[in-house]
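Give me the fold.
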Amino acid sequence: MSWMSKWSPQLLSVLRIIVAFLFMEHGTMKLFSFPMAMNPAHAPGSHVPLFSLIGLAGVLEVFGGLLILLGLFTRPVAFILSGEMAIAYFMAHAPNGFWPIVNHGEAAAFYCFVFLYLAAAGAGPWSIDRLISGEKGSATG
């Protein structure tokens, strides 16, 4: 067994945690203007309407991201977030051009496929999902 194979389960958990933390920033930006406002032209402290498409996205990104960060209900939440990012890409980015680098959709495409991977792979060993399941041998939680 190679060094990388040995650490693969733990690195799945690290990937999940880092991606969730970075993803949550998109939601906190929308809902709380933290660490910066979604639209820098808006006054500090201005937020998006909660009952709007962007407000719904912010809620999914903050609370879904938190669940992914904790590794709680990882598979279903990651599947929902993957769908959210696919919708975001095709609604907000694709109309601005085919190439993600041109339409600024590379983050949405990236998150879509990382969450799809987490939906299939699970949370990894460092997760609440693993604690709840009581599994010790399985690396995919």
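The chain has a mean pLDDT of 91.
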